[in-house]
Amino acid sequence: MSSRHVLTIEEVTLDDFDTYTCNATNQLGSSHGKIYVSGEADKVEITSAPMGGDVDSYDLAWKVKSFSPIIEYKIAYRKTKGN
């Protein structure tokens, strides 16, 4: 005997951001898991090459998953030794 249950949140709003818990029990025992749903963007993944081709410029490219539009980016950089 097999059962599958799915929780789908359509048209997510701020009220949906919370911690959700799933509890499962069967003849073999029980288990639970938690997931936190937030509106914060995931960690940025840099997609550009580590070393640029130009001496005085660098094209920085990245991708990120986010529920809401990102309206601001803050980029911190520093010179490395030898530069």
From TrEMBL:
Domain of life: Eukaryota
Start and end residues of each Immunoglobulin I-set domain: 3-35
InterPro entries for this protein: Ig-like_dom_sf (IPR036179), Ig-like_fold (IPR013783), Ig_I-set (IPR013098)
Pfam family for this entry, one: I-set
Transmembrane segments: none
Coiled-coil residue windows: none
Name of the protein in its database record: Immunoglobulin I-set domain-containing protein
Lineage: Eukaryota, Metazoa, Ecdysozoa, Arthropoda, Crustacea
